[in-house]
Amino acid sequence: MENKLREIRERVLAELSEARGTSKLEQIRVSVLGKKGELTGLLRGMGQLAPEERPRMGQLVNDVRRAIEEELEKKGAELKEIEKNARLEAEAVDVTLPGPERSAGSMHPMNIALNRMVEIFTGMGYEVVEGPEVEYDHYNFELLNIPKNHPARDAQDTFYINENTVLRTHTSPVQARIMTTRKPPIRVICPGRVYRADEADATHSPVFHQMEGLVIDENITMADLKGTLDEFARQMYGEGISTRFRPSFFPFTEPSAEVDLTCANCHGAGCRMCKGTGWIEVLGAGMVNPHVLEMCGIDPKKYSGFAFGFGVERVALLRYNIPNLRYLYENDLRFLTQYR
Length: 340
Ligand code: PHE
Description:
CATH topology of the largest domain: BirA Bifunctional Protein, domain 2
Helix content: 40-55%
CATH superfamily of the largest domain: Bira Bifunctional Protein, Domain 2
Number of helices: 13
Bound molecules: phenylalanine
């Protein structure tokens, strides 16, 4: 037994001095001092010794155990320190590394187009005003010379909230709100969302955007309207882009025109975008109907004015040669991030 103890002591101490990690130490500890460990086994076998041998052997076993425990402790502290240093080194942050790349967002082409439009008109002295999207029939229709049962109501497939309230079908009700609350001179633009019960397709969406313009002062003529829109076309799309007025009808303007812009894609030569005509229809416009001025409390003998209503999507599509309205609404980042 004595030999066995000596052998254990030498072997285990040698093993300990070679151990390379705290987990190895623990393994050794269990195999020697654990419940089923070698030394524990010996201790249990003491019962078979002659009674007078027992105290000495007990002493010896305890000596061996203490020696091993001491060594375990010393080695353990050493290895822990080494492991801690290794961990600190591994976790060290290299503050000189470049930071993670942050991708900058890009503007939606609609916003770019709208911002540019607003910039151009405010540059000409216009003020931006807004109105509600849930609108009274009174402003959306009545004050714009579209009484109940007027056929023009059918042309704008209206979403009704109730008998007197609609989702505005155009931005023109903002005109009516401004005319009833302000005195000329008036020079405003009114961008915003409008709603029509249309099927969605390449050129229609039940929700889209318009930008209304309204100017009222003394001696305002159709020439001012034409000059204003030509200047807008030039600033928005560049030299060589101008407007073409086609006679049309809106109950709230007289005379009225549908206004085309030179196709920015082919500069008027004719292409697929403009279906070979060289022109693209972008807005409705006209001189404010004197009857509308009167209903809104402005003296038509003293004042005259013009109004126009842009389809903002049209302006954006034309600006970027986008063939289908849906691209603007599908939120496909591969599409959207192309525009700055
Ligand atoms: N509100 C008209 C529409 O939505 C456009 C328009 C605005 C026409 C202003 C004339 C003047 O179709």
